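[SOLVED] Predicted holo structure with magnesium ion

Edit: marking solved, answer below. Original request kept for reference. I posted the sequence and ligand SMILES and asked for the 3D complex as C-alpha cells.
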Amino acid sequence: MCINTKSFAKIADHIVPNSLIIIDLDNTLFNYESRCAIQTDKLIEQTTDPELLNTLIPQINNLEGFGKLQLVTKWSESKIIYLTARTRSQQIATRIILSIYKIVYPVLYAGSIPKGEYLLNSYIKLDKFNKIIFVDDLDKNLESVLQIQAKIPVPIQTFKFT
Ligand SMILES: [Mg+2]
C-alpha cells in the first residue's frame, strides 16, 4: 500500500535497520517544476554570479524533515540514494544543487527508463537490504517500482510525495 505524505520525518518512522531509501528529485526533494528543470540546470551550470545562482537553485521540500531522515538513516545503518528521471546531461547541475544543501548521496539517472526496471538492472544489490523505501511524486513511478516486488524478496514500501 502506498502512503501519501509531504513529510520526510514521517517516512523516517518507517526505516528499519539496513533499509535502502530511494528518493526522487524533481517535485519530491526539489521544489522544482520539471518542465523548467532542464533550462534552469543549464543556467546553474553556466553562471559565475553567486547572486544569480541563489535565485536559480531550487528550494528543498521539507528540509527539516529530511534532516531527521538523514539522522535515522545513519543510526539504522541504512542507505539513501536518489533515483531521478533526469539524464546524465544534468549531472553537473544536480551535483551543484545537492552540494549547496549538503545532501549529497549517490544519484541514479534513469532518464526515460521506467524506475522499477532501472533499479532491477542497476549496480545496487537490492536483496542485501532488509527493506526498500521508495519516495516519488508520480503514480507511474510508484507503480513501476511496486511491480518489481514479485522479483525480489525484500519488502518495498512506497510513499507518494504530495
Ligand atoms: Mg518527480
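OP edit: The radius of gyration is 15 Å. Thanks to everyone who chimed in.
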